[in-house]
Design brief:
62% helix, 266 residues, single chain
Length: 266
């Protein structure tokens, strides 16, 4: 077995636990907003779906994204396996290209009604914190993995790039959803390069014009480049309403209700 595939689960789990613990502690020390529901109301379902997603991905894709990159490397598939590119450059280029793919996928999940039914589970959270960055319906996770694997093969991305991207994507999702306070100057500096919590929080507004903006997950350039960037919510960060107009009842925070949301009207 390729070393990247063999070590992928342990590396990803260690990174996940470390980043999650750090951001959860930061939320306690310096929260950005007052919660609508407490952690005890929301986290069991939000973290429960993470466990379901992990099991689903391992059952359906035992080698995960790194396995697709290993297969491409062995068979010479993809752009970067067809041309001579220094390994370091190939890794960096792959990570950036994959981030653009995830931006495009995110935009598509907002535009296609059937895909939006899956993705709105993520948006239906009435609060915005580190656990929101992990709250995705299993069917969306499976679809996303298929897109990433296809992109990895088409690019011919090195296995190390596949693993690095998965770690960065997971960490970025938790960071940009964290209920943490950044000094305005720090936010402006970071936002020039990466998506910050204040930038992404706009995307979780109940206001449709704001919901359908700021699609980036890591690199903030894509939203500016493609005209989907919105700097601030109209109501301001403290007053803005998080979530969707539907699925706002407290019962919707339960795992069974979360999983059934794509199949209900609200």
């Amino acid at each position: 077995m390729h070393d990247t595939v063999a070590h992928e689960p342990a590396i990803r789990l260690a990174a996940f636990l470390g980043v999650f613990a750090l951001l959860a502690a930061w939320e306690v020390a310096a929260p950005r907003r007052v919660r609508t529901l407490g952690r005890r109301d929301r986290w069991p379902a939000n973290l429960g779906v993470v466990a379901l997603n992990a099991v689903a991905v391992r059952l359906l894709f035992p080698a995960a994204a790194a396995g697709a990159a290993v297969a491409a490397e062995r068979h010479g598939w993809g752009l970067l396996n067809a041309v001579a590119v220094p390994r370091g450059l190939a890794i960096v280029a792959s990570v950036v290209a994959l981030d653009l793919v995830v931006y495009a996928q995110h935009w598509l999940f907002h535009r296609v009604p059937l895909l939006w039914r899956l993705h709105r589970v993520h948006h239906a959270d009435v609060d915005f914190d580190v656990s929101t960055g992990l709250r995705f319906h299993p069917m969306e996770i499976v679809a996303s993995m298929l897109v990433k694997m296809a992109a990895l093969v088409a690019l011919g991305a090195p296995p190390a790039a596949a693993l690095a991207f998965e770690v960065v994507l997971n960490a970025s999702s938790m960071f940009e959803h964290a209920n943490v306070r950044l000094a305005p100057g720090v936010d402006r500096l970071l936002r020039a390069l990466v998506v910050t919590p204040d930038m992404h929080r706009v995307h979780h507004s109940t206001e449709p014009r704001e919901t359908h903006s700021n699609f980036g997950f890591n690199v903030s350039l894509w939203d500016r480049l493609f005209g989907t960037y919105r700097a601030e919510p109209l109501a301001g960060h403290d007053a803005m309403r998080i979530g969707l107009p539907i699925f706002r009842d407290r019962r919707e925070a339960r795992l069974d209700r979360l999983l059934s949301q794509p199949f209900r009207e609200g």
